[in-house]
Amino acid sequence: MHAWHVPRNGEPGEVMRLEEAETPVPGDGQVLLKVRAANVNFPDALLCRGQYQITPPLPFTPGVEVCGETPDGRRVIANPVLPYGGFAEYAVADAAALLPAPDALDDAEAAALHIGYQTGWFGLHRRAGIRAGETLLVHAAAGGVGSAAVQLGKAAGARVIGVVGGAEKARVARGLGCDAVVDRHADDVVAAVKDATGGRGADVVYDPVGGAAYTQSAKCVAFEGRLIVVGFASGTIPAPALNHALVKNYSIVGLHWGLYATKDPRSVLDCHEQLTALAAKGAVKPLVSERVPLSGAAAAVQRVADGATTGRVVVLPGRTDGGSA
């Protein structure tokens, strides 16, 4: 089979190599999946750089989210078990963690439904307890993680303000349903959010960026608001001023979705059922902006790492032209 390998740590576009490889052999409790589509996530870039929470032995195949086919013909969503990730013709996953791919979504959309949407669901509902009528502020609203949060916020009945970087991303955010869009390249984010909320601020802030975005969030979160710390795509981990949280009465809420798989696995299944139902009625639909063949995986991961994409980029191992799955 063909598979992308990372023999050393570094930038994805420099270290990823497409090679011939032996088809992996699943271990106890695992299953071999034929990869139908593999979604590109920011953690794939961090894995290449050696900066992720886990560090698989070198060489490894990145690709942490796939829609695959089981040996008995079922179409499933899975998080491959590294080192046999999804940027290959075949991957390995834990049999107990397989989820049925929603019929309402094609392969590329199904591959993109899992990590970003589960993260958004747990962040908004379980951690922040978002309510209909509240205002949700989403940073990087046109990206893969942010676009999922925008859709889930709208589905929950929230008013959504999206923060983006650039006119094209602003157009994408409006198309996703944002009620207001702030271009951080052209606008004063804090002033714009205050203006859009009549000075009150956002009840819930969804921040996968960190750095300056977190600083802005703390300045425009509402009284008794909830600031969800999702990740640090900016590369800068903020140091919150807890005295500020105290005097302004807001909560700083951490979210590590991966912990639910071990701490509360039933909740992951319940969440998938909710997401499948939302997909069936068209309330959520992953924004797949690019569908690339397997040969384009390294360049795709690098573009995501550089923040040069909107929505999701999905690798289709069975295609040579990048056509629709």
Briefly summarize what is shown:
The chain is 32% helix and 24% strand. The protein contains 12 helices and 15 strands.
Broad structural category: alpha/beta
Report the total helices: 12
Sequence stretches where pLDDT stays below 50 over 5 or more residues: none
Give the biggest sheet.
Answer: 7 strands, mixed
Written as H for each helix and E for each strand, in order along the chain, the element string is EHEEHEEEEHHEHEHEHEHEHEHHEHE
CATH class of the largest domain: Alpha Beta
- And the CATH topology of the largest domain? Rossmann fold
Could you tell me the number of beta strands? 15
Number of domains: 2
CATH architecture heading of the largest domain? 3-Layer(aba) Sandwich
Please estimate the helix content.
25-40%
> What characteristic shape results from the CA principal axes?
globular
Q: Percent of residues in beta strands? A: 15-25%
InterPro entries: ADH-like_C (IPR013149), ADH-like_N (IPR013154), ER (IPR020843), GroES-like_sf (IPR011032), NAD(P)-bd_dom_sf (IPR036291), Quin_OxRdtase/zeta-crystal_CS (IPR002364), Zn-ADH-like_protein (IPR051397)
EC number: 1.6.5.5
Organism: Streptomyces spectabilis
Protein name: NADPH2:quinone reductase
